[in-house]
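Q: I'm writing up a methods section and want to include an example of the input and output format. Could you take the sequence below and give the corresponding predicted structure tokens, formatted cleanly so I can copy it straight into the document?
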Amino acid sequence: MSVLSVVRTTSLLALSGGGVAVATETPPSAPASSAPASSAPAPEIAPRPAAGVAPLRSASRDGATGLDTVLSADPGPTGTFRLRLSFFGFAADDFPDARGDSSFSGTTFALAYTPIEYVETWVSLRNTSNSNDGTHPTLLQTQGDLALGLKGGTYVLPSLAVGLALSGHFLGGLGGGPAGDGTSVWVRALMTADAARIDALPLRFSMDVGYYFENGEAVVDGQRTALDKIQEFGLQVSRYDRVTLGFGLDAPLNAYVDPFLEYRIDVPLQVQLSRRADLRDDFDFSAVPHALTPGIRVFPVPELALDALVRIGLTSKAYLGVPATPPWMVLFGATYTLDRQPPPPPPPPPPPPAPPPPAEGTVSGRVLTAAGEAVPSAVVEYGNAALTAQLANGAGAFTSYRLPPGKVKFRVRAPKMLPKEVEATVEAGKATPLEIRLEPDPAQLVGVLRVQVVDLTGKPVPEAEVVVATEPEVTGRTSDEGIFRAEAKPGTWAVTARAPGYKARTLDGEFKGGEPGTLRLALEKGGAVAGGRKAPTVKNVVIRARVLELRRKVHFADGKARIMPDSEPLLEEVAAVLAAHPEIKKIRIEGHTDDRGERALNLRLSEDRAKSVQSFLVSRGVAGSRLTAKGYGPDKPVAPNLTERGRDKNRRVEFVIVEQDK
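A: Here is the clean output for your methods example:
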């Protein structure tokens, strides 16, 4: 018979005579070569702080969370529904072959639900209409093809989710009723990497790898006339199983705009040469279905996602039994996300106004030593833990907070003093005077030793390094008169003196709390370098145009300016280079840190570290007039502070040549 239009539902009309009267659509979860649909990640009801990206996802074209055809491994928040409506179509000359022009359009309605954590289910219905004047009938339509799916997934790392998806695609048969043997199954492994979940870049990458068990051709088995390429595309039935691979990348710039790009390729397996479209051509990669899909989605409100995309076919020819890939297709869609979780309860009513507070007073105090001297910066703590401690000023004075009348307790402490608790009576509207006297803490008294360094003739040795072997060490340099005033905790400690051209000497010095003492060290001349040490072999220091380049880093104690022992040989090499190159007149020692912590603290730490290196080099015989020290803190990074490797590069000491003879 002559039929111009055929409609297939779950109960279909059959063609007879000279034409095939069937029409079906590609399963809603079919590969990228099939008719497209849309997806768009939707924002959550309460946006996360990570780059404005929300964990609620918009439905893909078959209903599950994801992009156009690539599913996300994230199943979405528990208790949320996602409703999806899509419109798509294209028109092309000589497609899928040169016999006629093709016009194609369709709609998809999908519903997804996350009933429990880690699990998502979905259902979708699709209708399509294809018109091509190169075959009979010219109009092929499908209505109500059904897809059901189940997905499980979870985040195994803060930004990485993995999962599995299983979906069945139920096509109607010919001549009435569904064709059970025409049911296809798609199994996929899923992976999603979401950098925004760790407050990094606003990028999300998804990938799925699967296997599509194709049984769509069973709905036309038994027809007297074999399908041609145009009819296969109109029906969108295929013959061969396929290995599927999809990649998706989206960049949620903010809570309103999310551009994306998707690529999918489906590789048919065991293609029979007897089914080839042109007897002169074998099946090759030009007939393998694959497409590239750029798109954009916007969120006018958090629950609604609107998207538009263009699927660009990368296949150059059609082949019987293999899904034909249109040269292009446009798609528009809308997704609404519904959260069944109850809204938060209304805020409680404001409490009744508090009664007016009673009249208050203050305490005007002063912290002194037992001898009546001011104790600056003493810490004044309150018996009421809710009140923040205060610091006395340079004259030892402080004024308390406004306090209710009655007794108030204070605890006062200061360095090298015994803490003391006192009590004062606050009177309404008055400033109660209070004097607090602190006694010295014997355990914290500092011993003072006057170290005098001379040569064997009694002549002072200036700029000699003096080291007191306490923990931590006390170091310093003698004045022009050969004198160094050392402070250390009470006890007997080894005191060592070193100077360029002299042999080092060590004597025990007794440090008595509060009682200054004197120690005289006479140095004997001799030694190749400062302190009698042997000049080191230089292998880690190189002179460049304007810097001394170190092949190793100078290490310091964590958060301190103390040079670690493993870096002393390196600085010995720096001293040896400067001794061997008197043409280098002046060096600036620069200290640098990363950007973690407060800038003021980093500036101070970098300054202290630069000065520690300066002192070390002077102790090794480098003239102090040749050295300056400057701390720059985090202000001059040499690498981004985004990774630990970059921050490690920024924590450094540099030696800049400021002046030298040519």
